[in-house]
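Appendix B, Record 12. Input sequence as logged:
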Amino acid sequence: MAAAQASPSSDDLAVSQARRAIEESNTKLARYRAALDAGADPVVVTGWIAQAQAEKTTAERKLREARKEEERTLTREEISTMVETLGDMASALAEAEPAEKADLYRQLNLRLTYQPTTSTVRADMKISATYCGVMDRVRGGT
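Logged structural output:
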């Protein structure tokens, strides 16, 4: 489970692209400042600066959005504790009503993808930091 979290995602690509765009904008701004210092036409250079600053602002917004999308990576200890806390989930799910299972899977954002060439199913889910207590319902309450 820990290794599966480390795989690169589209979020990683978005972060690197945004960082690259910010760096390029900073480089342009430094060159434009140097051009001004060297005596270039301030009216022309001001237009370039405005465009580079707008590109930088857009890239910074994209970087913030991409970072919001990043998920915190769990440590091995956190995963181990989570698994131990859940107990015998297979038994609990086997005894649960179909409607309860469907509700749980929906809340877990569980996505099952069947691979016909290997006759396997890949399960992906995202657990929100605010998600808790559903396992008590599946087990029948206390």
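The radius of gyration is 25 Å.
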